[in-house]
Amino acid sequence: MLDFQQREEKVNLAIEIAIKLGLLAIVIYFSYLIAKPFMAIVIWGIIIAIAIAPLVDNLEKRFAHRKKIIIALTVAVIAALLIPTYSLSGKMIESSQTLVHAMKDGNISIPPPAEKVKEWPLIGEKTYSFLDAASKNLKDTLAPFSEEIKEMATSIFSAIGSGLGTIFMFVGSMIIAAVFLIASESSIKFYKNISSRILGKKGDEWATLSTLTVRSVVNGVLGVAVIQALFALLGLGLMGVPFAGVLAIMIMFLTIIQVPALLIIGPVIAYVFSQGSGTAEIVFTIYMLIVGSMDGVLKPMLMGRGVDVPMLVILIGAIGGMMLMGMIGLFVGAVVFALAYTLFGFWISEAEVEEAKEQA
Question: pTM of this prediction?
Answer without folding.
Answer: 0.68
